Each structure stands twice: as C-alpha cells, then as structure tokens.
Amino acid sequence: MKTFIIEGEFRAGNEWEKFKKQVQGQNERSAIEKLYSLVGSKHGLKRNFIKIHSVREE
C-alpha cells in the first residue's frame, strides 16, 4: 500500500474549512475514494461538499 497526502477543503456550515489528510491506497484514485468515505462519514457530507486541491505520494 502506498501513502498519499491529500489537501483540500470541505463545507463546514456556511464556510469552507481546509484539511490535509494522510491516506493509504493502492493508487491515487483509491486514496481519493477513501478520503471521500472518511471525511464524508465523519462530518456528514456528500461528495459535492468536499473539494480536493492536491494529491501527492509520500
């Protein structure tokens, strides 16, 4: 498994809050899917309230 660092922002009420998250995945696409799952379930958000700005492999 590779480790990716994903940066972006998500909707928190009326404002956008920045985040930086370390996620493991087979490839970049699977890491992004995992991020959507983690952030979405933790904050009760749909995917359209999560914006990804950068993905890089650690």
CATH architecture: Roll
Strand content: over 45%
Instruction: Report the major sheet.
Output: 3 strands, antiparallel
Average the pLDDT over all residues and give the rounded result.
96
CATH topology descriptor: Ubiquitin-like (UB roll)
CATH class term: Alpha Beta
Strand tally: 3
Principal-axis shape equals globular
Radius of gyration computed on alpha carbons: 11 Å
* Assembly type: single chain
Query: Which secondary-structure class do the elements indicate?
Result: alpha+beta
Main sheet: strand order: 2-1-3
Tally of distinct domains: 1
Query: Could you name the ranges where pLDDT drops below 50 across 5 or more consecutive residues?
Result: none
Question: Termini separation (Å)?
Answer: 11 Å
Instruction: Determine the fraction of residues in helical runs and give it as a percent range.
Output: 25-40%
What does this structure look like?
This protein has one helix at about 30-45, and strands spanning about 1-10, 15-25, 50-55. With about 60 residues, the protein is an alpha+beta fold. It has a single domain, classed as Roll (Ubiquitin-like (UB roll)). A 3-stranded antiparallel β-sheet has the order 2-1-3, with helices on one face. It is globular and about 35 Å long. The mean pLDDT is about 95.
